[in-house]
Amino acid sequence: QGETLLGLARRILGLLARAGERVSEASHPLRLGVPEDFAAGAMTPVLAAFARTHPQVRLEVQSDLSHALWQAFEGGELDLALIKQGRGQGEPIARWREPLAWVDSREWPAAGRDPLPLVVFPSEGLYRRQMIDALDAEGIPWRIAYVSGSLASLQGAVSAGIGVSLLPARLLQPDQVVLAHWPAVRSVELALHQGPGTSEPLARLGEALIALCDEVMGPR
After folding, report:
1. In whole angstroms, what is the distance from residue 137 CA to residue 208 CA?
2. Range 91-95 contact pairs with CB under 8 angstroms and sequence separation of 24 or more
């Protein structure tokens, strides 16, 4: 009877250990922060593939302005943060160049208006400060015509002729044009930062994001 009970007890303890591992994994979600232009599109299949290969991990994705994502990362609220930043900031595990372009509507151009109407992110947005500093340096009068935290909203405003904006060159829309010979702006980069935690799922997700950004952004 004791031997029979011992075998059953070992099976119970094994099941309890496995249950504890599952609960522990589920109670520590993998938290990822990404800018809006990476929150959908090409990233969705990558995250879906990760979820299929790591069904025990609860993946939490936060999309926001890079300023907010960086604050969350520094506060320990994100395990991985893919952000736009000034060149050479911090110690990311990978970084890519992000060329910027002045963009205007193809059908209803705003570039010739005085003062120049601008389509911008909120005040903490990286591109907004780039725009204002560059225009001020050239003595070009400007006014804020449209403000939104949504990239899609800004692109729509530019296309509709509300104003000029400064956006990643790779995101140019068919109904927009690049304004050549405009004031130079400080270059920015896309950077992937990883927190202090270590785990196999975290490493695999980081590798998947690097492969995606290599494909989207080109050589590092």
Report:
1. 41
2. 91/193, 92/191, 92/192, 92/193, 92/194, 93/192, 93/193, 93/194, 93/206, 93/210, 94/191, 94/192, 94/210, 94/213, 94/220, 95/189, 95/190, 95/191, 95/192, 95/220
Q: Tokens in use for 191?
A: 């950077």
Shortest CA distance to 70 belongs to which of 58, 85, 53? 85
pLDDT (tens digit per residue) in 20-61? 555 554 557 999 999 988 876 789 999 999 999 999 999 999
CB 94 within 8 A of CB 191: yes
- CA 170/CA 172 separation, integer angstroms: 6
pLDDT of 27 reads 52
Structure tokens at 9: 């007890």
The pTM of this model reads 0.81
Could you tell me the two tokens for 128?
Answer: 């907004």
Residue 186: how many other CB atoms lie within 10 Å: 12
